[in-house]
Specification:
Layout: H1 5-10, H2 13-47, H3 53-106, E1 109-113, E2 119-123, H4 135-168, H5 183-195, H6 203-218, H7 223-232, H8 235-250, H9 255-275, H10 287-296, H11 312-320, H12 327-343, H13 376-385, H14 388-396, H15 419-423, H16 441-456, H17 471-485, H18 488-493, H19 498-507, H20 509-516, H21 539-549, H22 553-573, H23 583-611, H24 613-631, E3 637-639, E4 642-645, E5 656-659, H25 666-678, H26 692-717, H27 725-748
Length: 756
């Protein structure tokens, strides 16, 4: 029977704590007994002058007896370690559960025990009382969080039960069958017990397996993860297990099983990242990476794959899509895969599973995100997208290691290209990795994600990103700006990564402003001497980049928002402690921010003219997503000289980290940023039919309003008279800046690209 909500919230864990204390005493006594038996009984037996047949029998009996004392100590210590860890974790789970229950009941929610580790939360509504509008979502959240804690407690309970049985062995005359140093070891054994069932795991067992992997392999570092993967039997067994589970979980139309398989993919992938991280005390040997490379181009034999048995890399790719991998592990694999693709672009794409059906949506990537997982190039770029240090090293490497087809190092081999140049080449043959034809955007999308992590220092989909830039990441960003800014056709060809270009632009909005100021050493935007992580784009590349990304709605929305946020921070930084304002710097910042908006708007207006008003609908939808967090009452968070615009799942917004000039007085700056973003002006089509010129007019009108928003709010916040000299100067600054931006983009920017 599973542990239930009622069991966990009512159980007296003090009794378990007392048992732990008793076992600690027992362990100490048995240790003394075992040591005495070894140094006393056995030593005397060995030194005694036995004679005859009795000598052999007696010495053997004494050795066996001494060994049993040692085994009893081992068994008792295992019991103690398991119970001690279990008691600590259960106390924490029970305490958290009681807090959740109290909070739910304070909101007049009722908790019903379903008797299977889950609960149902309902609202108590008295006669004549209305239901709360947000009650359903909040009750579901309470139910999920409570059920998760009870499920975790049940996993602990089941693992302890199994471990104690193994430690005892069922033989009352023979002790010490299994030795456990922690609950982690015991739970790794339980996970392996379930894994041996493979696709025959029931849904309940697969849920338990996923929880074990998530709470131990993902959230607890490397010990559990390492024990689990070693227990599977090595890299080949790992691939066979995951591949079989992946194919089984994505077959047919069992959505519940698919959801569980997606959880398995995420938890196993993240656990593999932990297990292969050499910074963890417990980790897999480096030979695992070498074996994965050797298996990469070898066929695996597994049921469910049909005639086309998968290559090792096709299966491994599904695991690599989750987790922050160490560069020493993922780097050589990524290099090998890119080199294999360079030699034969169709090596993996011609090897989709032939299972007799046409509905092959997921392959070895049950998540269904960014490709089906048939081609490992897409998968390994996704892995780099979650592994910032590894991605940075990958794109920075000017002297890559050359690998043979079998994954061994080609000593003395020379590659002749960098990975950045290879993957941003217009003629690069992106693999098809999904349904339909062509399906190349999946690989391009993954490339954008990898570049994001390399330049910004965080996983591309991190809901709480931290902007981490250094000299290497800035160098890569310079390549991104130069390559995509100067080749609008390439950017159009790889349009699916334009959202990534936008987030990268947002992450370097300070250096974009500096670039527009021609990277002058006396610029207000110039970084302090000795500061790392700043890119020197130059005036030409900066303008080309803004012109190019302005043609793409997602990129436009990101950089437009970032420009307003950054300009707001620069303006606030010009106010001294005594209230005096550096008026010259305020004018410069206002003019630069407006120039960025002007360049983006001119590029946008030209693109609308080239592709029609339907294109502007995409721009407005992107802006709605980017600004949607305001509607939910979520303000910007400023910390460590970064403004963080939180993720709002309901609005489909991906979190963005934007550098700010200062976070002094972050509360006031957060409020100012919220005001500026909240003043965003729409440029939606207003009854103009197919009149492109009317829409262009709307774009410029809204753009001017957005360009002046930071300075206008600054003036209001600091009581600056709009009709005074300084106020008039600021109005001139945003007007001149916006006009310069539109003029320079029109004169020196990129022509609109329609893909024709």
């Amino acid at each position: 029977m599973p542990l239930t909500y009622t069991d966990l919230i009512e159980v007296d864990l003090d009794k378990l704590g007392a048992a732990v204390s008793d076992w600690r005493i027992t362990v100490d006594h048995l240790k003394t007994l075992a040591e005495d038996a070894g140094s006393g009984l056995e030593a005397k037996s060995e030194s005694a002058r036995w004679a005859g047949a009795n000598a052999t029998v007696t010495r053997g009996f004494v050795k066996k007896t001494v060994k049993e004392f040692a085994d009893l100590h081992t068994e008792a210590d295992s019991v103690y370690q398991i119970l001690d860890d279990a008691h600590t974790e259960l106390v924490s789970l029970q305490r958290g559960l009681k807090t959740l229950a109290d909070n739910a009941q304070a909101k007049r929610y009722m908790i019903t025990d379903n008797g299977d580790t889950t609960v149902y939360v309902s609202e108590y509504v008295g006669p004549g009382e209305p239901s709360k509008d947000d009650a359903k979502e909040e009750m579901r959240d309470f139910a999920d969080r409570i059920s998760a804690r009870v499920g975790r407690a049940n996993d602990v309970d089941q693992s302890v039960k199994s471990a104690l049985a193994r430690a005892h062995g069922g033989d009352r005359y023979n002790a010490g069958h299994a030795d456990y140093g922690s609950l982690d070891e015991a739970q790794a054994a339980r996970a392996l017990e379930l894994a041996r069932k493979g696709k025959h795991m029931t849904d309940a067992e697969l849920k338990e397996f996923n929880r074990l992997m998530k709470y131990n392999g993902v959230e607890k570092g490397g010990e559990f993860a390492t024990d689990f993967y070693q227990g599977l039997g090595g890299p080949k067994k790992t691939l066979e297990f995951y591949g079989t589970m992946s194919l089984d979980g994505t077959a047919g139309d069992d959505r519940s099983r698919l959801a569980l398989t997606r959880d398995l993919q995420r938890s196993m992938g993240t656990a593999l990242a932990n297990a292969t991280d050499p910074d963890h005390k417990h980790h897999l040997p480096a030979s695992w990476g070498e074996q994965f490379r050797r298996l990469g181009t070898q066929r695996l034999l597994m049921n469910g794959a049909g005639l086309n048995q998968p290559y090792g890399y096709q299966v491994l790719g599904g695991l690599l899509r989750y987790g922050n991998y160490d560069a020493k592990f993922i780097g050589p694999i990524a290099e090998h895969i890119v080199q294999l693709h360079h030699r034969n672009p169709n090596l993996f794409t011609m090897n989709k599973p032939m299972t007799g059906g046409l509905d092959l949506d997921f392959g070895y990537n049950p998540s269904g995100r960014v490709g089906a997982g048939y081609d490992p190039l897409t998968s390994v770029l996704e892995a780099l997208g979650h592994s910032p240090e590894a991605s940075k090293e990958f794109f920075s490497d000017e002297h890559p290691t050359v690998y043979n087809t079998d994954g061994t190092v080609d000593e003395g081999g020379k590659l002749g290209y960098t990975y950045f140049d290879e993957l941003t080449e217009k003629k690069f043959q992106w693999p098809t990795d999904g349904e339909g034809f062509p399906s190349q955007p999946h690989g391009v999308d993954a490339l954008g994600h990898a570049l994001e992590s390399a330049t910004l220092g965080h996983a591309y989909d991190d809901p709480t990103p931290k902007l981490i830039r250094d000299a290497d990441s800035a160098d890569i960003m310079e390549k991104v700006v130069h390559t995509y800014g100067n080749d609008a056709k390439l950017t159009k060809q790889q349009e699916i990564l334009s959202d990534s270009l936008g987030r990268m632009g947002a992450g370097y909005i300070d250096d974009i402003n500096w670039g527009l100021d021609n990277n002058g050493s006396d610029s207000i935007f110039a970084p302090a001497a000795g500061t790392e992580g700043h890119a020197t784009f130059g005036l030409g590349d900066t303008r080309k980049f803004l012109s190019t990304i302005g043609q793409h709605p997602d990129a436009y929305a990101e950089v437009s928002s970032a420009g307003q946020v950054y300009t707001t921070s620069v303006l606030e930084a010009q106010v001294g402690d005594d209230g005096n304002i550096n008026q010259g710097h305020v004018r410069d910042a206002t003019r630069s921010g407006a120039e960025i908006q002007g360049m983006l708007d001119q590029s946008r207006a030209d693109q609308v003219r080239a592709e029609g008003v339907a294109k502007d609908k995409e721009y407005n939808e992107s802006l709605e997503k980017r600004h949607g967090w305001v509607e939910f009452g979520t303000g910007a968070v400023v910390a460590g000289s970064v403004a963080f615009l939180p993720e709002v799942a309901a609005a489909g917004v991906v979190a963005t980290a934007i550098p700010v000039l200062t976070d002094t007085g972050s509360g006031a700056l957060e409020q100012q940023i919220g005001n500026v973003i909240g003043d965003w002006t729409e440029s939606k089509q207003q009854n103009s039919g197919e009149d492109v010129q009317a829409q262009r007019t709307a774009i410029y009108t809204a753009g001017e309003a957005n360009a002046e928003a930071p300075a206008r709010n600054f003036m209001e916040h600091h009581s600056i008279d709009r009709n005074g000299t300084f106020g008039q100067d600021l109005e001139d600054a945003w007007s001149i800046g916006y006009g310069r931006g539109t003029d320079r983009e029109d004169q020196q920017g990129q022509l609109p690209q329609t893909g024709e």
